[in-house]
Design goal:
Layout: H1 8-20, H2 29-51, H3 65-82, H4 87-100
Bound molecules: magnesium ion.
Pfam family, one: MazG
Keywords: Hydrolase
Protein name: NTP pyrophosphatase (Non-canonical NTP hydrolase)
Length: 110
């Protein structure tokens, strides 16, 4: 796949086109939740490997934190597509929450 900056909507469309090739389509919400939990677990394993106390066993796959974050993003995009949620809109609302409700929560840089 070409290496270029993409919008969230473009990523959603790529995921939808990919999933659309298969008869099975998107997983159910519960299976998506389980998949997301699996990927978060894999992310935790990489974090523990790179920043924590738990080295990998010999012969264990060498993934990267970036790849595991991308796996999580893929499942999140599947989730939003499957449930017909506009993730772009949700992201805007979520950032408004941080910028309005939590505006004095953290120490601003001078
Ligand atoms: Mg993974």
């Amino acid at each position: 796949m070409e290496n270029k900056d993409m919008t969230l909507n473009e990523m959603s469309q790529i995921v939808d086109k990919y999933i659309g090739q298969f008869e099975e389509g998107y997983f159910s919400p519960l299976a998506l939740l389980a998949s997301l939990s699996e990927e978060v677990g894999e992310l935790a394993k990489e974090i523990n490997h790179f920043y924590g106390e738990k080295p990998k066993r010999k012969g264990e796959d060498e993934n990267t934190v970036g790849m595991e974050l991308a796996d999580c993003l893929f499942i999140l995009l599947c989730f939003a597509n499957a449930l017909d949620i506009d993730l772009n809109q949700a992201f805007i609302k979520m950032m408004d929450k941080f910028n309005i409700r939590d505006k004095d929560r953290w120490t601003k840089k001078e």
